[in-house]
């Protein structure tokens, strides 16, 4: 019995370190009205925490490239150290010509990365800014806020935004989902309607037991992964792709999220 328990424990460790972190899941979500033709494909890539640029990272980038997105949004913590700048540059280059937007996460703040170095990777950094993609008669507007955990998100961008028109979809992006439960935020969001809000940060807990995550980073709030109804929008919290602190995943597969508008 003891031998069986030890074998099971070893198997679990091997799986959580070398297998599940590699098992990327592509999840697709149709955000379009039933009567409208899909016009935009947005791909969310969160919490890469690049540790290098090898075959695994190339596979992720090629998977994204093959989906022919109109836009890729990196929702924070793409890298967590200055020496990772070349790896992010290689990753973005592998994606081809698709526009790549990037909002800051807590680790990008804590690592004291310069905005110039991040912009040099080929991303379009959104630091409390808005960016619009036009395709035919339709517009996709992205509002990128600074990180709630380690930065200074500008609530003024929320108060002057509106959505739900036939020719425009608006997406609000903020790395740490705990932001959406703050009283000051819910007051602003309650009067606004966004087609979608995006966040990451939680890694789905990295270790989750039937969806319950015993440990989540500060700034996660009540959120773990998936869709939540919050004031002003439907919020999607990505499980992300990388790992932080501990190089393991169990019950929380890495994901690439695809949204059709």
Portion of residues within helices: 10-25%
How would a textbook summarize the main sheet?
6 strands, mixed
Query: Quick one: overall form?
Result: globular
Q: What is the CATH superfamily classification?
A: Metallo-dependent phosphatases
Corresponding CATH architecture: 4-Layer Sandwich
Describe the protein in words:
- There is one protein chain.
- The protein has 261 residues and is of the alpha/beta class.
- The protein has one domain (23-33, 40-260): Metallo-dependent phosphatases (Purple Acid Phosphatase, chain A, domain 2, 4-Layer Sandwich), CATH 3.60.21.10.
- 23% of the residues lie in helices and 24% in strands.
- It has seven helices and twelve strands.
- The strands form two sheets. The chain has a six-stranded mixed sheet.
- The longest helix is centred in the N-terminal third of the chain and has 18 residues, at 2-19.
- It starts with a helix and ends with a strand.
In short:
The protein is of the alpha/beta class and about 260 residues long. It has one domain: 4-Layer Sandwich (Purple Acid Phosphatase, chain A, domain 2), CATH 3.60.21.10. It contains 7 helices and 12 strands.
Topology:
Blueprint: H1 2-19, E1 25-30, E2 41-45, H2 55-65, E3 71-75, H3 85-94, E4 100-103, H4 106-110, H5 115-119, E5 124-125, E6 129-135, E7 138-144, H6 156-159, E8 168-173, H7 183-190, E9 196-199, E10 226-230, E11 233-237, E12 255-260
Parallel strand pairs: 1-12, 2-3, 3-4, 4-5, 7-8, 8-9, 9-11
Antiparallel strand pairs: 2-12, 6-7, 10-11
């Amino acid at each position: 019995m003891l031998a069986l328990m030890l074998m099971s424990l070893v198997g679990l460790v091997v799986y959580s370190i070398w297998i599940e972190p590699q098992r990327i899941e592509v999840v697709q979500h149709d955000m379009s009205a039933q009567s409208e033709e899909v016009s935009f494909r947005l791909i969310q890539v969160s919490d890469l925490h690049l540790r290098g640029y090898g075959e695994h990272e190339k596979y992720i980038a090629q998977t994204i490239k093959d989906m022919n997105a109109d836009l890729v949004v990196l929702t924070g913590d793409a890298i967590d150290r200055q020496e990772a700048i070349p790896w992010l540059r290689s990753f973005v280059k592998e994606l081809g010509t698709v526009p790549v937007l990037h909002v800051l996460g807590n680790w990008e703040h804590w690592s004291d990365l310069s905005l110039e170095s991040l912009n040099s990777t080929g991303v379009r950094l959104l630091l409390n800014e808005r960016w619009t993609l036009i395709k035919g008669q339709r517009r996709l507007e992205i509002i990128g806020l600074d990180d709630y955990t380690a930065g200074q998100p500008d609530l003024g961008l929320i108060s002057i935004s509106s959505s739900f028109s036939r020719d425009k979809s608006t997406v609000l992006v903020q790395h740490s989902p705990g932001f959406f439960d703050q009283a000051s935020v819910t007051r602003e969001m309650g009067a606004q309607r966004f087609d979608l809000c995006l966040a990451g940060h939680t890694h789905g807990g990295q270790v989750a037991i039937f969806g319950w995550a015993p440990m989540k980073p500060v700034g996660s709030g009540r959120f773990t992964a998936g869709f939540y109804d919050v004031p002003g929008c439907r919020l999607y919290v990505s499980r992300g792709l990388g790992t932080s602190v501990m190089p393991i995943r169990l019950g929380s597969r890495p994901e690439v999220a695809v949204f059709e508008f």
